[in-house]
Design goal:
This protein is of the alpha+beta class. It contains 5 helices and 2 strands; from the N terminus they run βαααααβ. It has a single domain, classed as 434 Repressor (Amino-terminal Domain) (Orthogonal Bundle).
Length: 70
């Protein structure tokens, strides 16, 4: 089985009423990076994952987690 990193960034961002641009500015990346993370096309570095989790006041393992795919 292959493991991939998945996340709840879109759900957290939507629930908080935050735009992709606002989140990107807060964690010092581009909006395109946030889009790629939300779509699952990009697994962020540990530092970026921690920044995003901190922004949402959540433990990193509640925002990002490993998913097994066949």
């Amino acid at each position: 089985m292959k493991e991939t990193v998945t996340n709840k960034v879109y759900a957290l961002r939507s629930n908080a009423g935050v735009t992709q641009e606002q989140l990107a500015e807060a964690v010092e990346v581009t909006r395109q990076t946030i889009i790629a993370i939300e779509k699952g096309n990009y697994a962020p570095s540990v530092l970026l994952a921690l920044k995003i989790a901190h922004f949402f006041k959540s433990p990193v393992d509640e925002v990002f987690f490993i998913k097994n795919v066949k």
